[in-house]
Structures are given as C-alpha cells and as structure tokens.
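Thread: Newbie trying to understand structure tokens

Hi all, I'm a second-year student working on a class project, and my supervisor (Dr. K.) asked me to get a predicted structure for one chain before our next meeting. I've only ever worked with sequences, so writing a 3D structure as a token string is new to me. If someone could post the tokens and maybe explain what I'm looking at, I'd be very grateful. Here's the chain:
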Amino acid sequence: MSLIDSTVPSVPTVVAETAVERTQQTVAVVGLGYVGLPTALACHAAGMSVIGIDVSEERISEILDGTPDLLDADRRRLEGARNSTDRFSVVRDVAAIADAECVLICVPTPIDERQIPDLAPLAAACEAVVARARAGQVLVLTSTTYVGCTRQLLVNPLAARGLMAGQEVHVCFAPERIDPANTQFAMTEVPKVVGGVTEACAMAAVPFLGALTNRLHLVSSPEAAEMTKLLENTFRAVNITLANEFADVARIMSLNPIEVIDAAGTKPYGFMPFYPGPGVGGHCIPCDPHYLLWQLRHERIYPPVISAAMQGIATRPARVVERAAEVLAMAGRPLRGSRVLVVGVSYKPNIADTRESPAIEVISGLRARGARVSIYDPVAGSVRVNEEVLYSLPCPPEPGEHDLVVVTCRHDAVGEAAIAEAELLLDATYSLPEAGNRFVP
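---
Reply by user tm_fold:
Sure, no problem. This is what the structure looks like when written as tokens:
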C-alpha cells in the first residue's frame, strides 16, 4: 500500500519501506507543548534521535521530571525516552538544531484579547531556526497559521542567507493534527498533509513525517496545506456554533437537543454530528479561524458565515452566565450574592489544559455580576481568572452547599453522583440528562 496520497501528479509514489531507512537520523522539535512533546515522543518511538527545544525552564523541568499532562501512552513513551538520554535530550538553546537533519517547528499560535493573531512566539521561533539552519536540512512548520506564513517567515529569510528552498534546504508546511486526550485516533492513524515549497522539498520530508503516520497526503504548496488546516478548524467552529444555536431552539420547543442530534446522526450520509456546550477552548477552534479572518480583513474581505460563527463562539460563555441568572431567578434568588460552584475548568474532558477554556469566561462573568464562585476540578486543580488563581475544592460538593452548580466540563474523575444532587444544576455540557433540578443553557 502506498504511503502517499498526492494531488501533485508529478510526485512519485513512495512506499512505506522508504521511511524506515532514515529513522535513525536526528530530529529537532522546537516547542514542547501539547503538540510538540507528543510529536517528539513519536519521533523517538519511531527510532529517531530527538532534540527537544523549549524556551521555558518550567516546561523543560516538567519533561525531565516526567510530570507533563500526557495521555498514558505518551507518558510511557516519555519514561522510555528519559531512560535513553543518548537519543533524547531536552534543551533551551535553539542552536542545537545544527545537529539535526530535520527540524519541526511546533510553537503555539494564540490570539490576543482583541482576537488578533499573536505571532510573536512563531516569528521568534522561525527567526531563531533560520539564523541557525544549515544546508541539507529539512525544515517543517507545523503550527497553525495564516496562508503564506511559511514563505514569509522561513523561505524568504532563508533565501536572504543564501539557502534556497528546494536546493540547499527543504521547507514544508505540515499542519499538526493532535487532539489532546483523544485515545480513539493514534498519531500513526491520522493522515498528515504536507505542502512542500518544491516537489523536492516534499519528498525530502517524507522519510521523517512518514515515520509518524500510516499515510501522507501531499498538496501542491505550503499555502494549500496552510489553508487546509484553517478549513478544518473553521468547519468545526461553524458547526459547533450551529449545534449551540439548535440547542437553544430545542430548549424553547421543550425538546432534548442531544436526542435530536443523535437521531440525525443515524443518517449514513450528508450529516456529521456536532454537540452543544458552554463554548470551546484550546488554541484551535477559538483561535485558528481568526488567523484567516485577520488575513482577509487586510484584503477587505468579510466572510459572513465564518464571522458569525466566531461571534457565536465568543458569546457562548456569556449565554451560560445569563442562563445561570435565569435559573436562580426562577428559584427566587438573585445571582448577586449566590454561592455558585463551577465544575470542570479544563477546556475539554480528562486533560489539565485550561487554555481559552470557556469556564474562565463563565467564572469571570458570574463574578462580575456579584456571584460568589468556587470551582471543583480534580484534573486541572486550578485556573487563572483575571490574574487571580482559583484553586479547586478538595472534595466533591455536598448537597445544599451551593445555590447553583454550573457544569462546564465533565471529567471521568467527576462522577455523576457528585453533582447530580445539587439543589439547582445548570448542565452546560448536556451530559447529565437524569439529574434532578437540571437546566441547560
């Protein structure tokens, strides 16, 4: 079976055996966050020597201590990597990329409080890599970004140094497809899209990237690969916004939105189920489409569907706060002064990651309206809200301890019984249909 799908007719077929020949070479992974560290561990498991690079001493200490937030499989990989220091090292100095045949750039691409792309981490990483790149290397950008970024931040600066893409060095964009806490799809089972600056660039990356996945899909350019990633997450943003809107309509019509979505999901074609919630978090869905919107604004293009979807995502936590006030009002209580417990502050179940978590905005909105807010999350443990760190209660809440319990994330470690007996329960996850006194947004 061919390792490669290709939309470029001139790209030859490469079989999986080709990838085995070079897996003993060295790969440098720049950025060891929720994408970079699993990628580095996958490279090590595939037989490559790995140099992990991160600017954060705290992150490096976590990795060396074996304590980062990882899936069990990756935690076992990390333990094995830590025991083979001849093939796995973690450093701060990006100059170490000189020892690698392939460099993978995996730094975060967040947005700021005005929903403008914060390109500082990516620009700094690319500048550092360009300054230290050498002839013969394969440079692969994996961070989600705007269309044209690979040429602007890598190809053109490399050319200014006399390193021409496709000749002295090989440059590609291959967007990450890692979903934290998702055990259903291993990295090896998820096809990887690769856009080389030239055909030679794409083929040079195949031995390295092909060791990480069962299938590569080559596209005609870095720009095509960059747009592919933006489409993936914009598609999800639009459909999540639609699911939230349908959930609101279903509640007004006294219908269970999950029942309706599951019923529609029985159709074997033309429908893909998405589910409502308190909002979305992480650095993908709430951030990535803004890279496209930001770029389009420069061209004076305003796509109505994408813009409306991102507005819907941005305002969803505020809807949860408003609904909390409505639920308390029906019980004859004002939101101001009420004891409100927010359960689950991670952005998705079973991980400690609170980046862009909708719970943060829910908590902030509740406190702004005078509620006395506590949190319970045995996985995340704490969350930063408006520069203040809130720590989780040590134990599940007792019935009657709070006037309202708002569930924004359901970890497996949080049993239904621990929250189902709440006097008033606002289930923003739509996952507790049997609980008494339950309301949904």
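A couple of things are worth pointing out once you decode it. The first strand starts at residue 4 and ends at 6. The radius of gyration is 23 Å. Feel free to ask follow-ups in this thread.
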